[in-house]
Amino acid sequence: MALEHAILVSLLEQPGSGYELARRFERSIGRFWTATHQQIYRVLKRMEADGWVTAEEIGQDGRPDKRSFSVTEPGRSLLVEWLRAPVQPEAVRHELAVKIRGAAFTDAAGRAALIGEVERYRAEHEALLARYLNGEKRDFAEINDDGQRLQHVVLRGGIAYERMLLDWLDDVLGTLRAL
């Protein structure tokens, strides 16, 4: 998937400025596709030049004008074409898993250090799960349309993934501590 597709989806959900898009990426889209502010602005500029989005200048009192982007028909067509294309399973790159395998070749001190790293990693994912669950309560207490249903099913996938990961990390910690 390209960043362009994630931006098109976000703008179809709600037009917005580059700053607003970056905030959405931090808050929701970032659950499954990350991008920096600079990347978003760079891609928006290219998408506008390609005719996939259009920008409207919006005046703001006491602040510089902002540009609010929305998807054009060519942009919508591009997204529909992309939606119809088959998806290949992603290759997984998981540095922690390689470190865990490497624990077989270290001493007790190395394994103890790895336990600390797994605990830190687990705490980060536990916090992420808590944010997802809070977001679910906040954003999906009432679901009114198909778009919300689809957003919610993606969030539920993120919740399920984090729960599975936490279970696995508990298993890893139990195994490392038993060595």
UniProtKB/TrEMBL annotation:
Residues 7-79 form the Transcription regulator PadR N-terminal domain. InterPro entries: Tscrpt_reg_PadR_C, Tscrpt_reg_PadR_N, WH-like_DNA-bd_sf, WH_DNA-bd_sf. Residues 92-176 form the Transcription regulator PadR C-terminal domain. It comes from the Bacteria. Pfam families: PadR (PF03551), Vir_act_alpha_C (PF10400). PANTHER family: TRANSCRIPTIONAL REGULATOR YQJI, TRANSCRIPTIONAL REGULATORY PROTEIN. This is PadR family transcriptional regulator. It comes from Actinoplanes utahensis.
